[in-house]
Model the fold of this input.
Amino acid sequence: MAEKTDVRAALRDAILRGVYAPRQRLIEAELAEEYGASRFVLRNALISLAAEGLVELQPNRGARVREITVAEAIEITEIRRAVEAIVAGRAAENITDDQIVLLRGIEADMRAAVEQNELVRYSELNASLHGTLRDIAGHTAATRILEQLNGQMVRHQFRLFLVPGRPSVSLPEHLAIVEAVCSRDPEAASAAMAAHVGSVIGTLTELASEQRSGGHATAL
Done:
């Protein structure tokens, strides 16, 4: 069981980091050798990742990295909006004084990253903020759902930060979330999070429209 878990985790991490590109074939024999696992264990890992939406299993053709279209990304983010709002509200109910200090530190780092135009750093801090809110909320089911949704969205999420001006738009949205959570106001926290994720949906919708008008593929 440990071998299966380790291979699945390693392969999942590689997909999320872009080691394997969308639609790239995942050949069992090669992966089994690369990860030092049996083909049985490797196959089970691929089945598990397919259930998570990261891998596509093709009859008689094996597996490949699943391609997520912008249209799918929008639908995923609509679900994420509802779940993230629950998390933010619960975090506002649970937050301790020490955790307030932690969130304020992330807030300050996000401000600095935008001021210095450090897009990769801002993307990392965004993930840190949302992860910290999940930890504070302690909502096990919501965390499990979001981890799966975010895994499918990772390429689109990074692309959002490359949209000109997007970090400057999302920063005040994040600051509003932090303020509401640190003020221990669950309703305001949920509303601020819903507004932020709604803004993400709006940007994704604009990207989809631009791609359609330009005749480009709508997937990453």
Summary: The longest helix spans residues 186-214. The CA atoms of residues 131 and 165 lie 24 Å apart.
